[in-house]
C-alpha cells in the first residue's frame, strides 16, 4: 500500500502546486485581496507542495477572524487553524509553562489571532471552482477596527500629549508677540507716511487694510492658543479619550 502511494507522490505534488498557483492568481486579480489579507510565502530557495493555503488577515481585521471563518464555513469552504495557532494558548502547554506569555512570541500570536488554513486538493480543481472560491473569500464585508485609547493626564500618553500641546501653545504665543511687534512698526510707518505725504494715499490705505487683515488672522491664532490652554487645563483635571482608525497599510 505504501509503495503504491509513494508512486503517486510526484503527481499529487505537481497538481497541488498547480491548484495553489491558480488560486493565488485568482485572488491577486482583485485589489480587495491585498487590502484585507495575505498568503504566506515560501522560504527563498524552496519549492513546497503545500497541502493547504495559509492566510493571515491584516491587523485591522483581526477582530473579524471568527466571523469570517464562520462565513466561509457557511458557504462550503472548510478551514482550520494554522498548526493550532500559538501553542502557549493551548491549555496543556499553559499548564506546564506558567511563566511563559503568548504575547512574548509575536509571530505565533499573529498566526493564532489572524491566521487560517484552507486545504489544497491533490486532484485537479476546475477553473470555475477556483474562481468561485476567490469570489466567496473576497465577498465578505470587512470592517477595520476602531480602537479607543483611554489615558489619564498622569499616564504616559497623557503626559506626552500635554508636553506637545504646551509646546504648540508656547510656539504660537511667540509668533504672536513677534508678529505684533512687526505689525506695530509697520503701522507706525504707514501712519507717518500718511502725515508726511498727501500723494499716494490710496496705496497707503490699501497697505493699512492689508496689515489690519493680517493682524486679524494673528488674533485668531491667539484665540487658538487660548483654546489649546483650555484643553491643557481639561487634561490636567481629568482623563483623555483618543479615537484612532487603524490604517490598512503596514498590516503585516
Automatic annotation (TrEMBL):
Pfam families: DegT_DnrJ_EryC1. The chain crosses the membrane at residues 147-165, 171-196, 208-235. The keyword Lipid biosynthesis does not apply. Coiled coil: none annotated. Keywords: Membrane, Transmembrane, Transmembrane helix. SUPFAM superfamilies: PLP-dependent transferases (SSF53383). Gene3D superfamilies: Aspartate Aminotransferase, domain 1. The keyword Calcium does not apply. This is Uncharacterized protein.
Amino acid at each position: 500500500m505504501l509503495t503504491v502511494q509513494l508512486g503517486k507522490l510526484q503527481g499529487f505534488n505537481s497538481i497541488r502546486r498547480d491548484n495553489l498557483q491558480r488560486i493565488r492568481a485568482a485572488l491577486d486579480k482583485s485589489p480587495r485581496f491585498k487590502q484585507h489579507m495575505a498568503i504566506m510565502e515560501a522560504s527563498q530557495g524552496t519549492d513546497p507542495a503545500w497541502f493547504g493555503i495559509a492566510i493571515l488577515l491584516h491587523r485591522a481585521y483581526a477582530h473579524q477572524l471568527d466571523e469570517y471563518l464562520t462565513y466561509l464555513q457557511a458557504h462550503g469552504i472548510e478551514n482550520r487553524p494554522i498548526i493550532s495557532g500559538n501553542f502557549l494558548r493551548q491549555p496543556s502547554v499553559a499548564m506546564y509553562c506558567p511563566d511563559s506569555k503568548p504575547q512574548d512570541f509575536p509571530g505565533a500570536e499573529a498566526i493564532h489571532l489572524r491566521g487560517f488554513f484552507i486545504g489544497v486538493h491533490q486532484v485537479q480543481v476546475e477553473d470555475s471552482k477556483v474562481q468561485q472560491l476567490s469570489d466567496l473569500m473576497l465577498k465578505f464585508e470587512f470592517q477595520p477596527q476602531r480602537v479607543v485609547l483611554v489615558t489619564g493626564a498622569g499616564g504616559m500618553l497623557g503626559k506626552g500629549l500635554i508636553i506637545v500641546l504646551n509646546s504648540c501653545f508656547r510656539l504660537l504665543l511667540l509668533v504672536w508677540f513677534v508678529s505684533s511687534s512687526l505689525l506695530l512698526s509697520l503701522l507706525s510707518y504707514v501712519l507717518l507716511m500718511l502725515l508726511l505725504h498727501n500723494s499716494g494715499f490710496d496705496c497707503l490705505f490699501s497697505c493699512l487694510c492689508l496689515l489690519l487683515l493680517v493682524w486679524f488672522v494673528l488674533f485668531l491664532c491667539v484665540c487658538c492658543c487660548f483654546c489649546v490652554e483650555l484643553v491643557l487645563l481639561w487634561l490636567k483635571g481629568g482623563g483623555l479619550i483618543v479615537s484612532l482608525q487603524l490604517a490598512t497599510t503596514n498590516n503585516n
